[in-house]
Amino acid sequence: MPVQMNASADNRREAADIVLRVENIRKTYGSLVALRNVTIDIRRGTIHGLLGENGAGKSTLVGIISGQKSPTSGTIRLDGHEIFHADVRSMEEAGVFLVTQEPMIIDHISAAENLMLGIWPSRRGFVRWKKLKADAARMLEGSNINPEARAGSLDAVARRKLNILRAMFSGGKVIILDEPTAALTVPDRRQLFEFMRQLKQKGVTFIFISHYNEEILEICDAVSVLRDGSLAGGTDDVRSLTSEQLSELVLGRGLDLFQRDRRAAEGPVAIQLRNVIAPHVQVDSLELRAGDVVGFTGLPGAGAKELARTIFGLHPAREGTISFDGGPGERLPTHPRDALDRGIAYLSDDRRKDGVVGHLSIAANIALSSLDERSWMGFIDSKREARLCDDYFASMGIKAPSPLVAVDTLSGGNQQKVCLGRVLATRPRLLILDEPTRGIDIGVKQDVLRIIDQLSRTGVCVIIVSTDTDELVRAVDRVLVFRSGSVQEVVTGGDITTGNLRNLSQA
Ligand SMILES: Nc1ncnc2c1ncn2[C@@H]1O[C@H](COP(=O)(O)OP(=O)(O)OP(=O)(O)O)[C@@H](O)[C@H]1O
């Protein structure tokens, strides 16, 4: 019976190959079924992509794997052993780490101390500070993070990098990265991927959540796709897939990619900025015509985000004026309220800080910043408010039972859609969007780009601050590349390509 013996040896080898198995996992929130009997095998030493539309159940699944959430039913096996009553601590001790989109960093200690959190070297009960600093400095080499810097002073990207590095150096054998590349620059992303490949060689396994096909195709070995809480498909050989097939697997249909019909800068100037000077910003002149969609890009600190925030009154300008429709130059807004009063709206890239109010409903959030428009002599027109909320709820494709549920209960991408609905509802004349589709799935991303396009056709000027080159290529008329606080390059027409923008924004 040699054939049978070979088969069982193969089975054993195969079982040993599987570091993590989720089996028949089901999770419900009241009547909502977030996961329906999901079974996935994750092979040791691979990078396993987890894909799905917003609200498909990805964060819920990795929350369960990492011990943050408990399943309604089903089992998790690590190295073939069933795990009972897992919590975050026991899973980290077992080598399973979840790196979320919101870095868990302690602000008042240094980057080095944060990096080594939980693994501070000690001798006879005393922390070996010298060794800690030396180890941390080695790990942070090439990351542009000063090991001595107070974590609270680091920007969002540095915090995210620190969090990823912490999991990697804490001896994780299964590391889950939930949209780790959001906000990372191209060089940062390359560095992260290189690092993942090195650890993979050493047998570390990654579960990698991303909405970017190109990333999945570049870094993953295998993928599993969730659709509406069920496993919709997957493969152990990502190389056999094309980007279109990946989209189809995620959406259950083909993807209709959006491409703006670019306009030349013609017609009277609607908004003009002059001599704007602010920390990290020095811009002599910027002109927007009605209906222009302009992209701002560059490395962190190069001025793109800073200028956008200056126009909205979040980043104090030392000098500079703004004028509307050929009128006289006015001082720049000194406060967001002042900006909103003058028809300038802004979507922050930090939805935790200035995005949504979690315990309020979707409708209340959408209504928040457009209160003036729906009130008349101090009274709120509630019919109008309901209509407005219904419109945005439907057009943004927000996945929730109704506009009345609390934003807290939505998936990350759906929360982002609420933020976007909220700024669009202010009906501004200048709309500034900072990373508008970050965290949003590929299908809805096209819808959002379409909505921005339609809005611009009503005469609204739009500024999109973005590090997503694909987004810029699809959505804008021209791209301003920032360097050292100034506009270094203006890219127009056929020159707006992914390759060009990557080269220019890294230079
Ligand atoms: N605490 C909660 N209460 C009620 N429903 C919840 C809760 N947490 C998640 N859900 C629901 O479970 C479903 C799955 O959400 P999950 O966050 O896992 O999606 P996701 O695939 O990670 O989406 P995204 O890409 O937007 O991050 C969604 O319908 C979401 O609204």
UniProtKB/TrEMBL annotation:
- Give the top-rank taxon of the lineage listed in the UniProt record for this protein: Bacteria
UniProt domain ABC transporter: residue ranges: 20-253, 252-507
According to the UniProt entry, its GO molecular function terms are: ATP binding; ATP hydrolysis activity
User: Which positions carry the signal peptide feature in this UniProt record?
Assistant: none
Q: Does the UniProt entry include the keyword ATP-binding?
A: yes
Q: What PANTHER family does this protein map onto?
A: CARBOHYDRATE TRANSPORT ATP-BINDING PROTEIN MG119-RELATED, D-ALLOSE IMPORT ATP-BINDING PROTEIN ALSA-RELATED
The protein in question is named ATP-binding cassette domain-containing protein
| Source organism of this protein record | Microvirga makkahensis
